[in-house]
Amino acid sequence: MNEEKQPNLPDKYHLSRKELVYLLKKKIVELVYNAGKFEGLNTTLLQTEEIIKYNRANNVVVDDVLTVVNLKRGFEMLLNDVQEPLLETSKRINRIVAAEDALFPGEIRTGGVEVSTIQGRYVPPMLTEDEVNNQYGEIMNQEISDTEKALRLFLFISKNQIFWNGNVGTALLIANKIMFSNGLGLLSIPENVFMKFNELLSKYCNSNLLVNESNIISFLYEQCIFGINYLKIIQHTI
Fold first, then answer.
1. Dist CA 67 CA 42 (whole Å)
2. Could you point out which of 61, 105, 180, 232 has its C-alpha 20 to 30 Å from the C-alpha of 3?
3. List of residues 6+ apart from 214 with CB closer than 8 A
4. Residue 131 has pLDDT above 80, yes or no
5. CA triplet 185, 21, 165: central angle to 5 degrees?
């Protein structure tokens, strides 16, 4: 791969499982709220917190409650150390995330779809399960950091819409599965940069220009990866 297509993106965090479990539990409300934006979630951050922490759903429609609950279950899957092919994990995640909306949750899409983007209608290619599996292998076997592998897999699923529904949510969770398993922090698209992400994703989906791929990967790397930053104490000798 050439240098333009493969920016140098080293792992930003090297966390223990204990640290990652703490981070996931501490950030679960924000993680679900941010991920919910891709699934049409209409709850506020406070309403999301009440559903997750207190099982309260005041003035929240049933569909939104189900979205929150399903995404929470999806993030909790990161805690399970299941040894299986990554594509099988993706299917299990999609069965949860798209349980209420997809025609066939957890199955690779075998029909055409159209996606609304900022730049208009986008028609993703239709890939067979073997083609999807080969792309997974190609990404994961590249000589790049595990963080970049997670970002590239996230973009592959999002662009190609490999499932019937819930693709970006599934992509986000499978990327986090890779990051969680390797101590790399967590991936989340904050609300304050959500519009910018959608703009970059639209350009990436509607064009094969390497600059659009590079721009969105760099954006995700710089703006959307979170971990634990410890305070460094510098001792001065007098």
1. 10
2. 180
3. 4, 5, 7
4. yes
5. 70
**Whether 106 contacts 92, CB under 8 Å:** yes
For the beta carbon of residue 108, count every other beta carbon within 10 angstroms.
Answer: 20
- What is the average pLDDT across 36-56? 93
Count helices and strands (H / E) in the chain.
9, 4
- The secondary structure of 17-61 as a DSSP string is HHHHHHHHHHHHHHHHHHHHGGGT----HHHHHHHHHH---TT--
Asked whether the beta carbons of 73 and 100 are under 8 A apart, the reply is no
H/E stretch holding 64 reads helix 62-76
Strands (DSSP E) along 80-185, which ranges?
115-117, 120-122
**Confidence bin at 102 (pLDDT 50/70/90):** confident
Alpha-carbon distance of 238 to 235, in angstroms, equals 10
* φ, ψ of residue 57 in degrees (nearest 5): -135, 55
- Give the per-residue pLDDT at 168: 94
Query: Please, are residues 68 and 85 in contact by the beta-carbon 8 Å criterion?
Result: no
Token reading at 33: 């709220």
What pLDDT score was predicted for residue 238?
A: 58
Residue 116 has pLDDT above 90, yes or no: no
Q: For residues 119 and 203, is the Cβ–Cβ distance under 8 A?
A: yes
